[in-house]
Amino acid sequence: MNMTTILAFTAATLLASSALAGSKAELPKHLPPFGADKPLPIPQIEKRILANEMEVWVIPKMGLPRVDAVLAVRGAGLAADTANTSGFASLLADLLTEGTAKRNSREIAETTQGFGGSIDAIASADGINVRGNALASRTPQLLDLLAEIVRTPSFPEGEVRLAQANALQGLKAQEAQPSFKAERALTQVIYGDHPYARITLSEEAISVLTPQALQQAHATRFRPDRALLIITGPIETSQAMLIAEEAFGSWRASVRVPAENATAVRTMQPTYVLINRPGSVQSTIRLGRPAIAATHADYIPLQLASTVLGGSFSSRLMQNLREDKGYTYSARGGLNVLRTGGRVTASADVRNEVTGAALKEFVNELRRMGEELVPTHEMEDTKRYVTGGYLISTQMQGAVATTLANNWLVGLPAEFLGEYVPKIRAVSSAQVQKMGRKYLDPNTISVVVVGDSKEVTAQLKDYRKFQNREH
After folding, report:
1. One-character DSSP codes across 43-73
2. What is the pLDDT, as a whole number, of residue 4?
3. d(CA 449, CA 283)
4. Looking at the domain assignment, is residue 449 inside a domain?
5. GO molecular function: any one (predicted)?
6. Chain Cα centroid distance, residue 399
7. Domain end among 180, 213, 248
8. DSSP labels, 287-355
9. Does residue 23 belong to any structural domain of this protein?
């Protein structure tokens, strides 16, 4: 059983127990009480800044004979895309591992297999992570290859054309999905012209995909003074630092440092959009508003409030719209925090005939978050779900490295890794209610509905006046 399967099984078990705890069903009377949350062992992180201003963190961890490494590059992600080429960064990340100045894509794959590991790259709004792992004895080779991919990608013409063709086909498939249209429209409504609105792939980004465009983007976005390398596994700190210095010490930026993103808006006039999808038998509902950056003082209590609302199987949206009303298979809600902004969202796909009724229940649950204190048992169940999921997700050394890298990208310090669970445990019902009043007021929430306008327009009239769009 691989790591992904283990985590999926454990998460499913946690979800099932959380759902039972939040439902009306009663547990057997003689079960022992839940044990106390175990603290997350805080790793000892050794830090160094190279002469080129690149940060290196080393986390020695004995046990598994494998080393994991993550190179995070801030400012290289989706928010760096131009307004008319959204999604370009995801294509850039995918193509990093398809060729370098020394190796083609096949040679890269064979090299990684040769040292018993893997390498990939993934883009987020605030950056790109290039991740790799290998047998501990092959650490120098792993970091050499990681540096080669990060510093000298070649973006071969054939690989770029293949990626372009695949992306076009993928985009066509996505455009047929109402969830894609709803997400794109909601993101634009929430963030306006801020770069955080550029998270979905666009036809324009695919059309400008050339080796030259990729090389130019790489030269601008990849630079050591905005990079962090994290190395973890059974390796001595001094040895890891020496290998990192040899692989990355001569890396220099080739262009002037680009500006950081401006702070995203915290509030925006709500907008109501109906995207017509003729013949659709269900409506895709998305609600959202701008929220806060990861470093904001409200992050932890708002995270807990959004989980109570819609972040688990036993959340209020699920219990109301699915279990009680039977309007949908799944109703969700949550908080997404980034480096200079964030958003709160909620979603469900419902039958045409209950579109208006479902929207009414969303409003009721949003308003309830600010009007009522969350009962003690519900608070404890939610805290256990949040902290348990976090502790499970950070058990593996590769996951720890990725979590640290992602936290760094959004501005959170290394210490936050161990602070998260105690801070969640310390949140009170009064704080959650305050977050409800401050960020979940339905009068501040934008709504996007994708569905058959002939079937749902009349149901939406009692809520707000919706803008009608054909796509």
Report:
1. PP-EEEE-TTS-EEEEEE--SSSEEEEEEEE
2. 42
3. 6
4. yes
5. metal ion binding
6. 14
7. 248
8. EEEE---TTSTTHHHHHHHHHHHHSSTTSHHIIIIIIIT---S-EEEEEEE-SS-EEEEEEEEEEGGGH
9. no
CA dihedral 215→216→217→220, nearest 10 degrees, is 120
- Per-residue CA distances from 468 to 16, 287, 326, 346, 420 (Å): 40, 16, 27, 21, 42
At position 191, the amino acid (one-letter code) is: Y
Give the span between the Cα atoms of 4 and 6, in whole angstroms. Answer: 5
Residue closest to 71 by CA, chosen among 410, 411, 390, 408: 408
Task: Tell me the CATH number at 351.
Answer: 3.30.830.10
pTM: 0.90
Same domain, 153 and 89: yes
- Cβ contact 78:229 at 8 Å: no
Residue 161 has pLDDT above 70, yes or no: yes
Determine how many CB atoms are found less than 10 A away from the CB of residue 276: 17
pLDDT tens-digit map of 101-150: 999 999 999 999 999 999 999 999 999 999 999 999 999 999 999 999 99
Which H or E run includes 444?
none
Query: Residue range 171-193: average pLDDT?
Result: 95
State whether 197 and 345 are in the same domain: no
What burial class does residue 379 get, using C-beta atoms within 10 Å of its C-beta: 0-12 exposed, 13-18 middle, 19+ buried? Answer: middle
Distances (CA, A) of 310 to 5, 255, 265, 319, 373: 25, 44, 23, 9, 16
Give me the domain span that covers residue 195: 46-248
Please give the Cα distance from 93 to 195 (Å, whole number): 18
Cβ–Cβ under 8 Å, residues 401 and 59:
yes
- What is the average pLDDT across 223-235? 97
Same domain, 223 and 298: no
- Residue 342 near residue 336 (C-beta atoms within 8 A): yes
Query: pLDDT tens digits, residue range 344-367?
Result: 999 999 999 999 999 999 999 999
pLDDT tens by residue, 412-449: 999 999 999 999 999 999 999 999 999 999 999 999 99
Q: Is residue 398 within 8 Å of 231, Cβ to Cβ? A: no
Alpha helices in 297-428 (DSSP H): 299-310, 316-317, 355-371, 376-393, 397-409, 416-426
User: Which of 14-28, 48-62, 421-435 has the lowest average pLDDT?
Assistant: 14-28
Is 18 part of a structural domain of the chain? no
pLDDT in tens, 140-150: 999 999 999 99
Q: Do 276 and 232 share a structural domain? A: no
User: Do 237 and 277 sit in the same domain of this protein?
Assistant: no
Hey, what are 183's tokens?
Answer: 């997400």
